[in-house]
Amino acid sequence: MWQSGALEEVRRLAARNLSQTLPVMRAIGVPPLLALLRGEVQVAEMIERWRLDTRQYAKRQATWARNQTGGWPRIVTRPI
Description:
Layout: H1 6-15, H2 23-26, H3 30-37, H4 43-68
Helix pairs in contact: 1-3, 3-4
């Protein structure tokens, strides 16, 4: 995402002076990139925050999926 222009995209969002409570402004990666643009963090810290946010989101998704599929029968496969 970094190489695909995430910083420029967040820069354009910031220029629109949108409310920080909007979902787009709370999306994964946006708050750390905003902090970088404001000079509050360095690139290394921004990347670490981005990674942590992504990991936490993935864990929440896994927990949600596990709770939604708890009654499903498990299929155990063996290598051929």
